[in-house]
Design brief:
mainly alpha, single chain, elongated, about 100 residues
């Protein structure tokens, strides 16, 4: 079943919505590819699945400048909390294994 121009205009809101996040230079090429891919399309669900695959060829995600797996640093200064000695008295429960290591018997 061939798709007439009136049926392609039924999918025009879907094409416009999917072309919005694309780069401005890719939008016209995406629209042309989408209209040619929709020839023979029978419904909105099939159109969406078809356009999803076409959209993926035109979408280029922005670069991720953050290093993956590392904490975010707001500035280049080192943290005072991480670089100084802990404050307060040591916990009496810590180091029990080391204290009992040399006990006789």
């Amino acid at each position: 079943m061939a798709t007439s121009p009136s049926q392609i205009s039924d999918f025009d809101p879907l094409i416009s919505r999917l072309s919005a996040p694309l780069e401005p230079g890719d939008r016209a090429a995406f629209r042309a590819a989408a209209e040619s891919a929709l020839v023979g399309c029978s419904g909105e669900g099939v159109a969406y699945r078809t356009l999803r695959d076409v959209w993926r060829t035109f979408f280029h995600p922005p670069p991720d400048d953050l290093r993956a797996g590392q904490p975010r640093r707001l500035g280049s200064r080192p943290s005072k909390l991480a670089s100084l000695e802990p404050i307060g008295a040591p916990d009496p429960r810590e180091g029990g294994r080391e204290r009992r290591q040399f006990q006789a018997g």
